[in-house]
């Protein structure tokens, strides 16, 4: 495989020649990350409560723009998270965010003065920041982590948040882990509240589940966690391109060398361990938006599509859902 070396202010990146056009913005190649957890403490240099290096979020963002990302949607999972996410969006006109409550944090509704008060606070945040808020979420169901929040509480406040989609005419940014029957049931039951569609992000379910979700008018969000097994790869390869979106779900969900998808990765980045942090380098084990090009490369290989053309089509999907009015 022939490679091209691109030198940026953030280090050297090895690119296959066919990806250089996408990286440098020729042939119209653009990418958007629809799901980046930029409020996570890792971007402040904090890992499991321990400070390992200085805050470097601005460097992460600079790398993203150099790697040809045109927009990033910051995923927010609570009221406080949404407020912090909005502060980060002020750093660039390319940054946007979601507002909502993650299923594992839905106990916050009960801990507030009242569930209605919590919902009203989310409503106020959206109302006062409509130029930056592009979706309701992250909301949904998570049966893998019921120790954080019971199934009953998750379902109750998932349904409550769906009304925000109708009120603001915003799409949904959705989470579903081992909960497809209940998740799909709630979406069907509340179809009248969902007029702007949405995306089920970080999808790792079956093809049948994906087909049901798509039939309801939703998109499927793909990241490294969607590509961890051979079964995952087979499922993703059969999804229609016009219903796919790309994300990193950073700082998690990187494509690891142990994943079967790694064999399709062509673009490689320099990184250092967090304990040996060097300004301007990626941190090993901490994903970031720049690596979204690797998700595109895997998908292009699975679909046997030109990565630049595929990237442009998925870019348009993102515009259609999140940015038609922006």
UniProtKB/TrEMBL annotation:
GO terms assigned for molecular function: 3'-5'-DNA exonuclease activity; metal ion binding
Keywords: Hydrolase, Metal-binding, Nuclease
Any Gene Ontology CC annotation: cytosol
Signal peptide per UniProt: none
PROSITE patterns with a match to the protein in the record: TATD_3
Pfam families: TatD_DNase
Residues where a divalent metal cation 2 binds: 175, 201
Source species, domain of life: Eukaryota
Sites where the protein binds a divalent metal cation 1: 138, 249
Record-linked PANTHER family: DEOXYRIBONUCLEASE TATDN1, TATD FAMILY DEOXYRIBONUCLEASE
Annotated function: Deoxyribonuclease which catalyzes (in vitro) the decatenation of kinetoplast DNA, which are circular DNA catenated to each other, producing linear DNA molecules. Plays an important role in chromosomal segregation and cell cycle progression during eye development probably via its DNA decatenation activity.
Family assignment from sequence similarity: Belongs to the metallo-dependent hydrolases superfamily. TatD-type hydrolase family.
Protein name as catalogued: Deoxyribonuclease TATDN1
Originating organism: Sipha flava (yellow sugarcane aphid)
Lineage: Eukaryota, Metazoa, Ecdysozoa, Arthropoda, Hexapoda
